[in-house]
Amino acid sequence: MTPHTATVLGILDTSSEEGLARIDGYQLHDDGADDGDGLYCYWMTPGDTYGVIHDGDTWTVAGGVWTEFGHTYRLVAGDRPVESLPTRRGPLPLDPVRVYQLQADAAGDWLVWRVG
After folding, report:
1. How confident is the model at residue 66 (pLDDT cuts 50, 70, 90)?
2. Which DSSP string corresponds to 14-58?
3. pLDDT at residue 52, rounded to an integer
4. Could you tell me if 52 and 93 are in contact, meaning their C-beta atoms sit under 8 angstroms apart?
5. What does DSSP assign to residue 76?
6. Is 15 in contact with 21 (CB distance < 8 Å)?
7. What is the pLDDT of residue 108?
8. Mean pLDDT, to the nearest integer, of 44-63?
9. 31 to 41, 64, 104: CA distances (angstroms)
10. How does DSSP classify residue 115?
11. pLDDT over 90 at 116, yes or no
């Protein structure tokens, strides 16, 4: 078995409010939402780790204490799926065969990690 490694790819462009962070220009769509349109802006909490995984259709996000079992959270920009993450150095293209993690560092910056 080959051990997995993680590599930092960049710092996300984020905005913060009341201790929560969001990726600038992106939202989450909750496929299982019972109310409203299922779109959410604020979704990252320092101390939690979020996985960004391609499910064969779009990029999904998992992790965090607020997620509900049986719900799929899709990363969207307006009404379209995303293909990259905004970083301080520009767009970071996402590779569907890779798994990514988002995690805040001690300074409060949100890092993008490629796993594997």
Report:
1. confident
2. EEEETTEEEETT-EEEETT-SSTT-EES--B-TT-EEEEEE-SSS
3. 96
4. no
5. E
6. yes
7. 92
8. 93
9. 15, 17, 26
10. E
11. no
